[in-house]
Write a structure and sequence with these properties.
Helix content is 30%, strand content 19%. By secondary structure, it is α/β, with parallel strands linked by helices. Helix 1 packs across helix 2. The two termini are 19 Å apart. Bound molecules: 6-phosphogluconic acid. The site of 6-phosphogluconic acid has 15 residues, from loops. 6-phosphogluconic acid (6PG) binds next to loops.
């Protein structure tokens, strides 16, 4: 059973995740010369990104960090729904990371399949990633792998998927890329996640994409009290 760390608030959850992330970064840079990190989209990780920018601007050697994304909505990077935009606003524009170390999922190809192929090529040299941050959707999705349509055996590293609500077209890392990782953090916050968190942790039938995340390395759940069954 993967460790579940429970915190009284999103702020406390984010502070603990930032501290654990910084430790992994320091270890990876010391032993392998770089730290490869895949960011999650959605809203939950925004607080973590703000904590990293505020409290770890100098404590992490960003020159040796490479940023990727677990998924992206197929919109321009300056669109309000863009995961890249959210990370730029809350983290990237506020830390000394070289632009060449930031590897956004491309969304400018006319054919999204070409974007997925280009991103899989960019990801390849970074596999296994040192850390992947993931969120949990209320339907049990993670990144942009959705129940009923995801293929746990997909050999590709990145694929086009279609969300049940807009923005429909997405690019997502596959379970193959996720489960090769040295570390995965799930960040789950809010009462609206309580039921799905229980279902995913009890899921023995592989109904939910999040249930299939079982990295070769270590999986840690960072949850707040609102999301945790009493
Ligand atoms: C996205 C995310 C998605 C997210 C979950 C949880 O692009 O939206 O990758 O998988 O992590 O939907 O989102 P919240 O953190 O906003 O609840």
């Amino acid at each position: 059973m993967s460790p579940i760390e429970c915190f009284h608030s999103l702020e406390a959850l984010s502070a603990a995740a930032a501290k654990a992330l910084a430790r992994l970064a320091q270890e990876a840079i010391a032993t392998r010369g770089r730290f490869t990190l895949a960011l999650s989209g959605g809203e939950t990780p925004r607080t973590l990104y703000e904590v990293l920018a505020r409290d770890y601007r100098d404590a992490i050697d960003w020159q040796h960090v490479h940023l990727f994304w677990g998924d992206e909505r197929y919109v321009p990077h300056d669109a309000p729904a863009s995961n890249c935009r959210m990370a730029k606003e809350s983290l990237i524009d506020r830390i000394p990371i070289p632009e060449v170390n930031v590897h956004p999922i491309p969304t400018s190809f006319s054919n999204p399949e070409d974007a997925a192929k280009a991103y899989a090529k960019a990801l390849t040299p970074a596999i296994p990633l040192d850390l992947i941050l993931l969120g949990l959707g209320e339907d049990g999705h993670t990144a942009s792998l959705f129940p009923g349509t995801f293929d746990p055996e997909d050999e590709r590293l990145a694929i086009v998927t279609h969300a049940p609500k807009p923005p429909i077209t997405r690019i997502s890392m596959t379970l193959r890329a996720m489960n090769a990782a040295r570390n995965v953090f799930f960040l789950v916050s809010g009462e609206e996640k309580r039921e799905i968190l229980d279902r995913v942790l009890a899921d023995r039938d592989g109904k939910y994409p999040a249930s299939w995340v079982a990295p070769l390395g270590k999986l840690t759940w960072f949850v707040d009290e609102a999301a945790q069954t009493q």
